[in-house]
Specification:
With 517 residues, this protein is of the alpha+beta class. 20% of the residues lie in helices and 36% in strands.
Length: 517
């Protein structure tokens, strides 16, 4: 019992000596840090901070622009722009958008229609896009109004008017125009991709219907509808002339061409068609009755052109071009290549950061020009910083007397398409003699861009109608994709694209040299 009492006294003394008051500073801190674990106190719930609105300047919408006219009334469309960084969450019309590290965003969101349209700048807006950006607990919403085709302010296709009596219109310049469509045997319409109509200056055509600023020629050409722009034609003071041409023609072989000459006092519109194998050119004069000619060629067609002279000694000359002499060791040596930076005065497509297509096409054209020059080509740019209207580009091409034309562009998508599922490289041509060049460029560009293969397609465009040599419109990639726009702003990526295009051209030239008959 005495032993127990003695042990208890010792324990009490030790407990007193080891209280926090007698511990060292480090021990007291350790003891203090552990105390809550041993005797936890109820934790107080902190009050949430008051949300602060995100500044309006933190959201920049590139598309849709306020008041933009959409091509569709229902479904979804794409939106692009920027927020400060990927620390922000962005929704548009309730749909989450993809935000990249520097804040560039892209989304495919539902089009919301207003139950009660609003009027902005005297235009009726019937659609809206509500953007909501959030960071932490701060939030800001912004609404962009737009117009669908259902809005009374949306531009409608003009109605077709039957003219009280047919008119005769006269071409004010040499013009190549694409036929709109042709009627198949089953009555269905098909876009007419392969045929173009050449209107020499001074040639006349009868029209019988009007739609806005265009006239429909009469009778239809090759079962196809062709609407001619009023601005490029004037009403003729004289009646449609009777055809004055010999039934035959003279042909003359040159080192790189064959020239077919027709005697005719009055120039006449004519339809051209080139066979898929590039072996034959078909020509039909739009006279009454029409007169057709077929020109088989000894070598694959490289291009074709027309020139006309009026008057008593008037002539129409059709020139079929063959491939230039190509040095297999230096395929670019001596070639004249026109590079056409797309767009300007119009800006073209826009990237999420606001980059204009016309700026990047010029930068790429300059880099590609240097690449081609180092390999011996003579390069002409259709434009520099000065604007060049679309309709004037073929005129500029012809004045340069080129062996090849490359028109440079960066792509967008249709309103109703999700660009995230359909972006990449596409190359466009019209005539069969341009297809091999388009395919060759596409072969080298597609792995460089590493997007989707959007194939080589045939389209009847103002630029691709230039027929004197192979012409390709190159849509290297989609500027509306945030990562592609960012890369396009670097010289390194543009240099990759320039090299791929140059390699594609070189491959085409070597193939043509080997295929020459």
């Amino acid at each position: 019992m005495k032993w127990f009492k003695r042990s208890l006294v010792v324990a009490i003394v030790l407990a007193h000596l080891l209280t926090p008051a007698t511990l060292t500073a480090v021990e007291r801190k350790r003891h203090k840090d552990k105390a809550p674990e041993e005797t936890p106190a109820p934790a107080a719930t902190p009050a949430p901070p008051a949300p602060t609105p995100v500044p309006a300047s933190d959201l920049k919408v590139v598309r849709p622009q306020p008041g933009e006219e959409l091509k569709v009334s229902e479904g979804s469309t794409f939106v692009i722009g920027t927020v400060p960084s990927d620390q922000f969450t962005l929704r548009c019309n309730g749909k989450l958008c993809d935000v990249f590290s520097d804040g560039a965003f892209i989304g495919f969101v539902p089009i919301k229609r207003l139950t009660t349209p609003v009027t902005v700048d005297q235009k009726v807006m019937d659609a809206f896009f509500e953007f909501a950006i959030i960071k932490d607990q701060a939030k800001m919403t912004n609404v962009v109004y737009g117009m669908t085709p259902a809005s009374p302010s949306s531009r409608k296709d003009p109605a077709v008017e039957k003219l009280p009596q047919p008119r005769v219109m006269e071409s004010t310049n040499d013009q190549w125009m694409g036929m709109e469509n042709e009627t198949l045997p089953d009555g269905k319409s098909l876009p007419n991709l392969g045929r173009v109509v050449f209107f020499p200056k001074g040639s006349r055509i009868k029209v019988n219907e009007k739609k806005g600023d265009t006239f429909l020629i009469d009778p239809p050409v090759e079962n196809g509808s062709l609407w001619i722009p009023a601005g490029e034609f004037k009403e003729a003071q004289e009646a449609l002339p009777a055809p004055e041409m010999s039934t035959g023609f003279l042909s003359k072989k040159e080192p790189r061409s064959t020239v077919y000459t027709f005697d005719m006092q009055t120039p006449m519109p004519m339809v051209f068609e080139e066979t898929a194998d590039r072996s034959t050119l078909k020509l039909k004069f739009l006279s009454d009755p029409p007169r057709a000619f077929v020109f088989p060629q000894p070598s694959p067609i490289w291009g074709f052109d027309v020139s006309c002279q009026e008057g008593a000694a008037g002539k129409t000359m059709v020139t079929v071009e063959f491939a230039p002499k190509i040095n297999k060791d230096k395929p670019f040596e001596g070639l004249r290549i026109v590079l056409d930076p797309g767009h300007h005065p119009d800006p073209g497509a826009l990237g999420p950061r606001g980059t204009e297509e016309r700026t990047l096409t010029l930068l790429l054209a300059r880099q590609l020009a240097e690449t081609l020059k180092t390999q011996g080509a003579q390069v002409i740019l259709s434009r520099e910083d000065q604007p060049l209207e679309l309709t004037q580009r073929p005129v500029k091409f012809k004045a340069s007397n080129p062996d090849l034309v490359i028109s440079l562009h960066f792509n967008s998508v249709a309103d109703e398409e999700d660009p995230r599922t359909r972006w990449g490289t596409q190359d466009i041509y019209l005539y069969p003699h341009s297809q091999p060049l388009a395919k060759s460029i596409h072969r080298y560009l597609t792995p460089t861009v590493r997007g989707h293969d959007l194939s080589v397609v045939q389209r009847n465009l103002v630029v691709t109608r230039f027929a004197a040599c192979p012409v390709v419109l190159v849509e290297s990639t989609h500027i509306i994709m945030p990562e592609e726009e960012k890369k396009l702003l670097t010289p390194e990526y543009r240099e990759e694209l320039a090299k791929a295009i140059a390699d594609g051209i070189s491959n085409f030239l070597l193939g043509e040299a080997g295929a020459k008959r």
